[in-house]
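User: For a benchmark we're assembling, each entry needs the component sequences followed by a predicted structure for the full assembly. Here are entry 17's components. Please fill in the structure.
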Amino acid sequence: MDSIAERLADKQKEISVGEFFERNKHILGFDSLTKALVTAVKEGVDNSLDSCEEAGILPDIKVVIREVDDEEYRVSVEDNGPGIPKRKIPDVFGKLLYGSRFHEIRQSRGQQGIGVSAVVMYGQLTTGKPTLVRSKVKEKDYAQEMKITLDTKKNEPDVLSKEVVLWEDKEHGTLFETTIRGLLRSGKHSVFEYLKNTAIVNPHARITYVRNGDTTVFKRATDQLPGKTKAVKPHIEGIELGTFAKMAKNSDRRKLVSFLVNDFSRISYNTARDICEEAGIEEEMKPRDLDVESCKKLLKATKNVKIMAPKTDCLSPIKSMLIKKGLKNVLKGYRPEFYAPPITRDPEVASGNPFQVEVGLVYGGDLPSDGPVRVLRFANRVPLMYKKGGCATTTAIQQIDWRIYGLDQKGGSGMPRGPVIILIHVASTRVPFTSEAKEAIADIPVIVDEIERGLRECARELRTHLNKKEKRKKVSKKFMIVKDILPMIAEKSANIVGKETPSLDKVMTNIMGVVYIDKKMEWNNGAAEGIIEIMNYTSKEREMSLFIEKPYPETELLDSSREPEHDGDYIEWKLDKLKPSKTSKIKFKFSNLDKEDIDGTDVFIDGVNETHLIGAEPLPDDWGVELADIHEED
Amino acid sequence: MKERHKNALRELEGIAEDIYDQLDEGNIPNMRIPTRTKNNIEFDDHQGVWKYGNSKSTRSAKKLKGARMILRTLYMLEFIRDMIGEDKSSTLREMYYISESWEKGKFNRQSESNRLAEDMEIVTDCLREDFKLRPEEDGARVIGDITVEEKNRKGEIRNINCRDDVGDSGYTIPYNVEEDKIKFTDTNVDFLIAIETGGMFDRLVENGFDEQANCLLVHLKGQPARSTRRMIKRLNEEEGIPVVVFTDGDPWSFRIFSSVAYGAIKSAHLSEYLATPGAEYIGITASDIMNYDLPTDKLTKTDRKALRQELEDPRFDTQFWRDEIETMLEIDKKAEQQALAKYGLDYVTDVYLPEKLEEAGLM
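Assistant: Structure for entry 17:
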């Protein structure tokens, strides 16, 4: 007679990976019809971007979605990547958990999804239709085309047809087309939003989106490919006990020291011996003989031993300039009045994985001002579209009192409100997500702290901008008084009492009390033409020098209405003495200046106290001091 | 040119001269006028009314708003000077429309130009009639046995009995009720009731309450115009007619009473011309709401705010008003005059008013 245990055991059937995911579609990101389309596009686009970058190709990606039936869409993603060799195509598209990046420690997009094969499976489950794949490698004259489905029981591809086709005008690339059940919506969680955000943090990509025949193109904003990432060994700092124990168990090293030196990054032989000594564990023992207690001791010991921070060349931050370009490229329709210089923080370590935070902030213009700020969240250059509430980015934003930076925020916590878009990018060899769905970054204190620091840096820039704007507003009001209203008051009162209109010079300087610098730059036939007006609305005669920094070393001063005192990295003009209520003017021309940098030239003034200066900055104390180039050794 | 206009012109030119001199000396021009808020009204023991205190506000051209106000003042001044010179007059509304062409000195709302005209009255110690400005609202109505001698637009003298020579809508109070326009030749009434709403005024007329109680009925039409208040004041002061005020029972009606009896904050510079210190409030009070069990509405948020403001208003700082305001806040209810119709159309003239007037010692 069978025991109860045996009978129960008989009922337990093995289920394959495929069957498991079939029953747990939400893990793959297919939990709603709207999300299904976003996920399908995301898997394809992530793959395309990764493969293009690995091959050093500027990505050119085309996404086409067409409704073919009620709640049924044909989705295709086409790239100009290196292509996939014929023999690998079935596995890439027809086998779950198959991928080159799966076991590596490096920054890549691919770690965020289960892969494009999940899309193939979802399509066949919901519409019964196979996925068409076409791929061409550079070496071949023709492309390979296959129709593929996935055998969920065996987790193996089924190739239904194979064909060789010509792919005109395509040197190399991959296209897949699948039919899935879904719902095409617009708004925050739409395919459009996903692609738009992808374009922001991937300014090197050109992305075309065709939605039921309507085409949107996100143009490439730079030809600079992101730095290549390298695979690295884990860093011991903050690694979890279980992971450490497992690594020790599986290690082939014969001695504990060599395990520490070879299986981890940044541990020298001496450091490894220090760790063993600190832990009181024999350095010669076999790592696979370590028990959990010893592992614990070793990890504890690492806290008291100085270990070099992990190498960060495995990370590929977007970097300030490209974030700005990406934001400008996609958001220019809002005509924002201010882009805070994006911040790329130094890399830090969380659980043995290096990570790096980048933050950007855009303010004003036509951005809606009556709601909470908008947050664009990214992990390894992939937009995070869901579970905003449980994300480290949200925690960091909400724990800042934004009121001191000039935004509305109820009670100084929670989401600030105002015409603001905040961009947060976390790059890491392993982004710690809150769940398998990989939609939110876990609230790990060191990560939240880094995000908060980055946010504060941007926020300070915002405050400075708002202060300047406020000051300008005050001054423009005063301008209105002295330019429009006061002369009329003088004229009217003189008319009523029957006397001559009085001189207003003194009253005007009394009201203004500042030296006002007005800089106008215009783009004219490939050169930037500038006019700087200096108006002395103070009661004293002023002797001033005016400085402007050249935006680029190659920028040349072509023409100047006044001979400059200095013309090098910066230009200095010495002005004639300027009496109260008098105006002086300088005209000049710059060559080799980008049109978009035209407003970037700041004016500095020497000879006027900051409190009496509007429209320019006082000359910094360290102006003109040549700094020696400092190179930091790694 | 009449003496009052000549005097006004002299005063107005003084303002312009002051501004001119400041400019000529290189100073930022400014104007000082009494602060026109409830924090700056003081009780004048001598006249028994509330007037502006000593606190002054400065309008300086250093600020955009102040500069604009000074420019507007000069525009208005020029406009008034021209009107006096050409012997024309205009309504406040007309002036507001004319200001459309005053460029940087134009007004955004008529309330702004009205207020500036009041400012000029305060600074020059003149009346807006001296500036040839008049309100556009039609005057309120009066019914009862008094006879006025009015000089009409053709300069003819007419004697009008406000009960027998008028229709059911009564005698309309003109905007100028000074001696040169109106004299009281005969007054045969024991007292005067000032009534807030047209509905109640018509009810008392239809019920013949003016004859029943031998009184004069005056329609206030909400917050009463200057001429209505001036007319009441003159009847009270010159003819010795006691005045009672009958309004809805809500915070806004309390304010109507206070502007009749104590003077309005907006026109506190004219309180001695306009306010009737002896006027008495007969209802609807918060106690009436309870005693007569009247149909009510719940107080709104703004009602409650207004009541709380009144508790801090020096004009309402008496035992009677503190009790009434606190009671109203407590019961959280307000009632209209016409709520009395709950007991029938004649209830107000047969029961309510006789009771209340007896309390006041008038019936």
